[in-house]
Write a structure and sequence with these properties.
This is Cation:proton antiporter. By secondary structure, this protein is mainly alpha-helical. The chain is built from three helices and no strands. It has one domain: Helix Hairpins (Orthogonal Bundle).
């Protein structure tokens, strides 16, 4: 299972980097989305997959014993999801604004911050 997740994570990173290097702004946004998902899977994989009980300390005990699920990677992934949604929302709004201002989604055509000449 860990090998499968490593392969999927590597594939998502490769696809995300490939899309970020494209000239189209929409592909850049999709690349950022894929990189966010790859980072979440990486944190999940590094946190060791266990089919254990929840990480609660039993009554009358000072520490956990045996197999248990680690809650820290899950909390980090939830935080990364929220941050990822914020970055995605920002890039979508930025794309909309550049489309309205410049009238293009090609990154090579966006060489200036001035408005395009009126014909």
């Amino acid at each position: 299972m860990t090998l499968l997740l490593a392969i999927v994570t590597g594939s998502l990173y490769a696809a995300g980097i490939f899309l970020i290097l494209r000239r189209n702004m929409v592909k850049v946004i999709f690349g950022l989305i894929l990189l966010g998902h790859a980072a979440n899977l990486l944190i999940f994989t590094v946190g060791r997959l266990t089919k254990g009980i929840p990480a609660f300390v039993p009554e009358g005990s000072d520490m956990l014993t045996g197999r248990f699920a680690d809650p820290l990677p899950q909390a980090l992934i939830l935080t990364a999801i929220v941050i990822g949604f914020g970055v995605q929302a920002f890039t979508i709004v930025l794309f909309k604004r550049t489309w309205l201002t410049l009238g293009t989604e090609d990154l090579d055509m966006m060489k200036t911050t001035d408005e395009p000449p009126k014909e």
